[in-house]
Amino acid sequence: MGNASIAVNPAAVAAKQKLVASFRSRGIVIALLSGLLYGFYTAFMTMGMSEGIWTVWYGAESGLSAFAVTYLLAALGAATTDTCSAMWALGFATVRGRFGDFLRTIKTKPGLVMVTAAIIGGPLASTAYVVGLQLAGSIVVPIAALCPAIGAILGRVWFKQELNSRMIFGIVICFGASAMIGSTGLDINAADNLMMGLLFGFLAALCWGIEGCVCGYGTSMIDPEIGITIRQVTSGFSNLIILVPLFGMISGADTVGMVAQSFGDASAMPWFLAAGLAAYLTFMYWYKGNAMCGAALGMACNGTFSFWGPFCCWVVLGLAMGIDGWSMPPIAWAAAVIMTIGIFIISMNPMDLFKKKEA
Fold first, then answer.
1. Which domain holds residue 266?
2. Phi, psi of 266 (to 5 degrees)
3. Has residue 154 been placed in a domain?
């Protein structure tokens, strides 16, 4: 019996290649959208903390101590945003009939790993991020974007993950860009709290880098949508019931009343709800983009928030709302772009984008 041969239809092969390329291209767009939404999350949250009762708390006659103004209000702002994000996540899970999956998964070992990671990346990182924003403005965003570089280093130390020469080169670029941003603190006209704000931005990057390493284990065994819901719920409620009361005890403030005022403020809450939705969608689009175009390219596209964060703050807070202090010096804009390039190099070999895919 002769060998059977299968004829390959060139038109079918071309159609399949076109479909794969289109799917990957849509994934890149979605991953880029996640970085853009992170910028809007930052801008909307900051705007919420500039409205209503927040103007009273930040006022000279609020009666709050310097500690409370710097740390308690930052924790409360992060808690309000993260809780709104958790409400969005639970709402979407309920509508999609997945609330039961959420309850079952959170009790498992991978679910508990996600809870641990969310505590590190939620109350600790988000509060440090907000403190940095309040002290130094949007210039903190590119510093916080160091998290992929820090995550790559920690992954090598803790889990013996690959850290080749290309990734090291990307890490050097990222830290070089952060040094460029830090150099703005040497300007005699720089804000008094700039360097302290940059330090808190780096602390946020460190916590998010740790979260990224730990979440790698959890998300490998959990449906991304459920994992995101666990992350947002843990982050929001742990911030609200742990960090805010802790800072309230230290500063002697009435946190129960302040939480009620924060969630009941009609002028600020729309901004927090928008920030919470943007935060939820950022994670959703990040995971979806990763699935469509690959984790490496998805991470690189998401890392563009080092540019989109300051840009969105400048547009929403500076241009649209007319709030001073949200412009950045040229060197910081350049550093944000360089940081994006460094994240891209850490995540993947840029030459892979130019290689022709074989049929």
1. 39-350
2. -70, -25
3. yes
